Every structure is written in C-alpha cells, then in structure tokens.
Amino acid sequence: MAVEEVVEDAAGLLETVAWMAGAAVAAYLLTGVVAWLVRRAGRRSEIAREIAQRLRNPVRATLLVVAAWIALNMSGYAGEEWFPVVQHLVLPAVIVTGAWLVGNCAFVLEERAYARIRKGVHDWREVRKLRTQVMMLRRVTVGVISVLAVAGILMTFDGARTVGASLLASAGLVSIVAALAAQSALGNVFAGIQVAFTNRIHVGDVVVVEGEWGRIEDITLAYVVVHVWDDRRLILPCTYFTEQPYENWTRESAELLGTVEIDLDFRTPVESLRAELGRIVSGTTLWDGRVQSLQVTDATGGTIRVRACVSARDGDDLWNLRCHVREQIIVWVQSEAGAALPRTRIEADADGAKSARMAGLPSGVSQPSMVD
C-alpha cells in the first residue's frame, strides 16, 4: 500500500511538472508573438520600440513563471505533501520576476517623461538638472522595489513572519540600535537625495573639491563621482556636499572669467600690449566676446605686473584661452617689444663700485649698463 502511495504521489508530481512545463512553453510562444507585434509597431513608434527593448526579457520571464504558477495551482494536487514545497519554490520566482518587470516599467516611464520634458527645455542647466533628478529617482525606485521584493520573499517563510511580528512587537531597543549602526549609511542616502533635488550640483557641473578641478560624473545614493581633469576619479560621500565648502563653476552659468599675469619691464608699451591682447582674443573661437581687458596691477621690485582678463563659455575653453593668451603675449614680447623683457639694472658710483638695484634708474645716472 505504501508503494502504491509513493507511485501515485510521484505520478502526480510528474503530471504537475508536465503541466507547468507546458504552460511555460505556451507562455514563451505567446511572448514571442507579442514581441513580434511590438517590433512591428516599433518601426513607426519610438515608444513601442523602447518598450520592446526594455520589457522583452522581464515580460517573458514573468509570463513563464506566472504560467507555471497557475498550472501548479490548477493541477488538482493541492492536498499532496509535496505541493507546498513546489509552491514555495515557484512563488519567490513570481515575486522576483514581477519586481523586475515593475522596475523596468518604471524606467520606461521615467525615460519617456524625461525625453518629453527635455524637448521643451533649451536651457542646458535645466537639462542637467532633469538628468540628475531622473537618475536619482531611478535609483530610489530600484531601492524601493528591491526592498519590497526581498520583504515579499521573506514573508513566504512562516518563520520569517513570526520573527517579523516579534520584532515589530519589541522594536524599541532594536530600532535604536539599528539607527545608530546605520546612521552613516542613512545619512549618505538622505544627503544624496538632498543634493540631487536641491540644485546644489548636477551631473556635468564643473566643480573644485579638495583642490581638484573636475566634472560631476555620477551621483548615487551613497557617493558622488568627480571626473578630475587628468582622468582620475574622485569618490566623495554625499554628505561631503552638504557639510563641506566647494566650488561649483556652473551652478547658474558656465561662463567664466580668467586672468593671465606676466611680469615685464618698466619700458613695456602698455597701450600696444593692450591692442595686441584685443587682436589675440579676436582671432580665436575660445573667447566668447564678453570681456577682455589689460591692466597694470603692480609696479614694484624693478618690474611691472600686467594682468590680462578674458572670458570664455566654460571652464575648458577658459583654460585653453588663458594658455593661448599667455603664449601669444610671450611671442609678441620676443618679436615686437624686446625692451619689455624684465632686466636687472646695475649702477656704477663715483668710486667704480657697482650696486645692483631692482628698481628704476636714479635721475643722477645718465648711461647705465644693462645686463639681461
């Protein structure tokens, strides 16, 4: 009698598995037909094409698992000893694939909303702001769906439900300990959300942090990645941007001013150099046409300090423009104004002794010797 029961149970299990496999095959064929129809529609619709790309695998996996789960529950063997075990194996798979599908649906909706809003926005600052917020919203969505999926899987275990109820009943001390232990991690999470939605920094902003110049490459719930100018990556916790001072060169506008300082001789033709600066910046596309000026900011120690102020569209152009102006002024001094090169003047007194002076010539000396 026991042998017959074992054989009957095995036959019922095999029959159930066969029904589940058949349902999975039918679901697979159905998803193939749906995918073909969506691809056909995607030729004329961008939304359909994006849905086909994003949701093909999640929909297929979800339908396969759901079909197997439905076949299992309709098999008529719910009273068998093996049924709860098989059901418990299938149910977590339904939760995981469902979470995968819901997450990808959320991604499609976020991307479509971002694309629609971006079409009507011509300000690059607003575009970067939207991009940053969409990225952060996506990460929050993934986090919430993942937590709910894990909680759903755990709740399928009777022991987990019992433990969860007991923890909720005595959550006072446990919650305090957990909060203290996770204070740093939770602080970073909330700081990341705050940074993304309060317009402090956006992806693509030019910043100076820890003495390093770079661009914001990524903002996560835990850290911010800064792409430094020499291709290094500076990883900083999100709390850094809520607690420490830093420079954001592009928060309101990317346009910047920069200076070039050169020490020259007192005999420098300043007006000619000022005109040369205008010619230099007018001949390059790096200059945005806003500001160009030249002033003498200091005159001590035997030289004058000339400062050229120029403007550019962004930090990259400003750096290259400053280097270009510096190089061209040096070339002009070498070829057109040799007298502007800094010199050390030596004065010979009546006794034939020499003394070096780092200032201009005194009025009593008519023909001093010059040493470059």
TrEMBL record:
Q: Which Pfam families match?
A: MS_channel_2nd
Q: Which UniProt keywords apply?
A: Membrane, Transmembrane, Transmembrane helix
Q: Does the keyword Nuclease apply?
A: no
- Membrane as UniProt keyword: yes
All copies of the Mechanosensitive ion channel MscS domain together span 186-251
| GO terms (BP aspect) | transmembrane transport
Q: SUPFAM superfamilies from the xrefs?
A: Sm-like ribonucleoproteins
Task: List residues traversing the bilayer.
Answer: 17-38, 59-77, 89-109, 136-157, 163-182
Q: Where in the cell is it found?
A: Membrane
Matching Gene3D superfamilies, A to Z?
1.10.287.1260, 2.30.30.60
Name one cellular component (GO) term.
membrane
Q: Which InterPro entries match?
A: LSM_dom_sf (IPR010920), MscS_beta-dom_sf (IPR023408), MscS_channel_2nd (IPR006685)
Name listed for the protein in its UniProt record? Mechanosensitive ion channel-like protein
The species is Myceligenerans xiligouense
